Amino acid sequence: MGNIWSRLFGSSNQTATDEIPLSQAQVVIDMPRSLEGQIFIEATGDDRTVFASRQLQDRLHFLQWLDNLRYVEGFRGVMVKYVPLSAVTERMEHAHQNTAIMETPKEDVEVRDRALALLTEIGGYNSSDIRIRRLSRHTEVACRINGRYMLADELENSFADRMMRAM
Fold it and tell me: Is the pTM of this model over 0.85?
């Protein structure tokens, strides 16, 4: 892994052809801890729906988060359905059952160990967050240090896929 400082101030090997078309890109949505377990986001095709607990209907922090969500690419016309908390929980459990994680194969233990080492290394620099960005030819792992995103590592997509499965 080595020290990332030599790579922090350099530029990425990314070219214009590395960008993933928006329709195939994954979107990361920041969700405040206070909303965890109270909302569920469903994305089917071009339709985006937020299922929110009825208790959030008049809460300012939820309405502000929802307003910010509409600035995320693909979520401008997001629909909101206020449902009982039990309905939100049921949707979460159903989604979790459909994406159950299998036991880590022995060959991926090495990959998982490398991922944990990378996360430990990045965490040692007091980074505030870590972003994993998949491009067409490689995957970038970046972190924010002192308010600035810096490239920590570049991985082959096949290795990054194995790493995500192993985690």
Answer: no
